[in-house]
Amino acid sequence: MGTFIKLLLAVCTLLLTANFIPIVNTYRSPWTPSDYSMAGSRRARAVNRPAPINCQLQAWSSWTSCDSCTDQKGRFRRMEKPSQFGGTECVESLWEKLACPSAATECLVTDYCGERFTCKETGRCISQSLRCNGESDCNDFSDEDGCEVVNRRGDKCSTLLPIPSAERGTQGYNVLTGDFVDRVLDSNYFGGKCEYVYNGEWRKFIYEAVCENLRYNEDEKNYRKPHNYHTYQFVAEATSEGSQDYFTDAVSLLNARKTMSSANGGVTLGIYKVEVGLSGSSESEFFNNVTQYNSQELGFVRLFSKVQTAHFKMRSNKLMLDEEFYVSLMELPEQYHFGTYSRFFNTFGTHYVTEGTMGGTLEYVVVLNKTAMAESNTEAEQAGVCLGASIGLSQNLSTNVNVDLKVKGNVCRKERSTHRTNDSDSAEIVDIVSLVKGGVTHSSAGLLAIRNPDTYRSWGASLRYNPTLIEYETMPIYELVRLSTAADHAQRHPCPNRDVLPMRLQAGLPGKGLRRDSQERRPDRWVVVMLGGLVLLLIREEDPDQNL
Fold first, then answer.
1. What confidence tens digit (pLDDT) does each residue in 263-315 have?
2. Are 262 and 382 contained in the same domain?
3. Which contiguous run of DSSP H or E holds residue 385?
4. Are residues 41 and 77 in the same domain?
5. How is this protein annotated for GO cellular component (predicted)?
6. End of a domain among 108, 125, 150?
């Protein structure tokens, strides 16, 4: 009897165990706590892997108001939580727009120009002397409409080309994302003046195959300078600063990129020919490509080259705003609305450029396998020297490279120095991530297009005509409004305490959205729109009883 009871208990134990042991599913998909949808089953995840966090959006705001001068109304919503660790991403828009109903009254736009001429579509104010001069001082050419006589200029500037890529310096800058966005200054406005800059490379010979003629490039001896540029100076011979550094992990690499502190060597690069077009890779794509290699078994060699082609400085007063920026500025509601102002800053940035350097940058990051490097007795510096030499950066980076570009180990085989390979000879190099800004790379993304000294020189030659901003100083966007030709009807605030207008970017701006900081209420005053501690714009508020 005792044996039967023991056998019965054993059978019951087996049945209970079979019913309550969870089934482990090793299917590779994001794990979430809600995955217990099937009774008695769960999905496995790595021990150190955090649970995915799905993106969450807040509720929609109220619609903006419609009046006789608006044809659209909008609403917005904020992101409550971003997607993390493989969670569901937010694919829906943060903005919505609808058409406003037809207005029963006529839109009466205030004419701020007085005796000056008003551009028809945008309301820009220009001098009457610019009427009928044959130049588009209004983007819609309304200043040239109805002219019985056109007084076309006959001076030197009538034949000059504008400065190549002058629009680069007129873009707004978003300090929160590090991106250059839409233009805030007009790069095509000359104000009726004839100002030009000297191009030191005009004496390069040009051979015309059709006419079998060798001549100087007289057409590019001078360029016409836009009104908003105070100075623009071409560098007579483009100079390149190169550096090579080794980092034990991705965090150290990214911190070094943030400070841009590397400056170990340099080479000189001449400008030889004209190329057309522009391409470059995304900073965010580069960041993602690097951060995917977070293993402690990997090291990083960073090669960096910066080529300068010109230096410039903007005017300090009477700046002419870009017409799209001007229209958007004047359409901002006087009563602060987070969605509208946030969209404005996303479109035109938080700052504008006051001076800077044109040129281009070339960056290669070699991802190395530390174990394979140790087994092959190869130094990390050798891998960087090899790659640098293969693209023409070897002169001043190191003296350890001979004519055949061979160093100890197998990582320095010239014919594949900029290609990722998987054979045993290149086990030390896991990947090569590149970022090219400015110039012509003959690649849709600017990735791995510069493979040898010839393509490096060709890229450098194209920078004079297709440069990008590589160094710059900025000021808050509200200062641009104050210093522009529109300042008389977009006045600065009367606050006597200038401490509320910080002029420099504070480290670590909090991303908590915009807020309004004010002084004592009084009629017809200007309040300050701030992001964290940074003043961005001024809003006029005429009603002293209006809630802030």
1. 322 222 222 222 222 223 356 677 778 888 888 888 888 888 888 889 999 99
2. yes
3. helix 380-390
4. no
5. extracellular region; membrane attack complex
6. 108
Residue 509 and residue 442 share a domain: no
Does pLDDT of 529 surpass 80? Answer: no
Tell me what pLDDT residue 36 has: 34
In a domain, 93, yes or no: yes
> Picking from 3-12, 177-186, 455-464, which range would have the lowest pLDDT averaged per residue?
3-12
482 contacts 492 by C-beta, under 8 angstroms: yes
The verdict on 541 and 462 lying in the same domain is: no
Final residue belonging to a domain, choices 439, 471, 503: 471
- Reference 485, options 315, 332, 344, 355; nearest CA is 315
Q: Which residues contact 313 (CB under 8 A, 6 or more apart)?
A: 229, 230, 231, 354, 355
pTM: 0.66
Surface-to-core class of residue 214, CB atoms within 10 Å of its CB (0-12 exposed, 13-18 middle, 19+ buried): exposed
Write 402-411 long-range contacts (CB < 8 A, 24+): 407/378, 407/382, 408/377, 408/378, 408/379, 408/382, 409/373, 409/376, 409/377, 409/378, 409/382, 410/376, 410/378, 411/376, 411/378, 411/382, 411/383, 411/386
Q: What is the pLDDT of residues 432-478, one digit of tens each?
A: 888 888 887 655 444 446 667 777 777 877 887 888 998 999 999 88
Q: What pLDDT is attached to residue 61?
A: 86
Same domain membership, residue 375 and residue 303: yes
For 130-151, letters b (16+ CB in 10 Å) and e give bbbbebbbbbeebbbeeeeeee
What's the token pair of residue 268? 């000189």
CATH code at position 63? 2.20.100.10
How many domains are contained in the chain? 4
* 268: in domain: yes
Q: Are 302 and 434 in contact (CB under 8 A)?
A: no
Contact 171, 229 (CB under 8 A): no
pLDDT band at residue 493 using 50, 70 and 90 as cut-offs: very low
Cα 157 to Cα 200: distance, rounded to the nearest angstrom = 18
Q: Which residue has the higher pLDDT, 181 or 362?
A: 181
| Portion of the chain with pLDDT greater than 90, in percent | 16
Range of the domain at 417: 238-307+359-471
Q: Quick one: 300 and 392 in the same domain?
A: yes
Specify whether 372 is located in the same domain as 255: yes
Share of the chain above pLDDT 70, in %: 58
Cβ partners under 8 Å of residue 518, min gap 6:
527, 528, 548
What integer best gives the mean pLDDT of the chain? 68
394 lies in the same domain as 451: yes
Domain membership of residue 499 (yes or no) is yes
Give mean pLDDT, residues 376-394: 67
In a domain, 312, yes or no: no
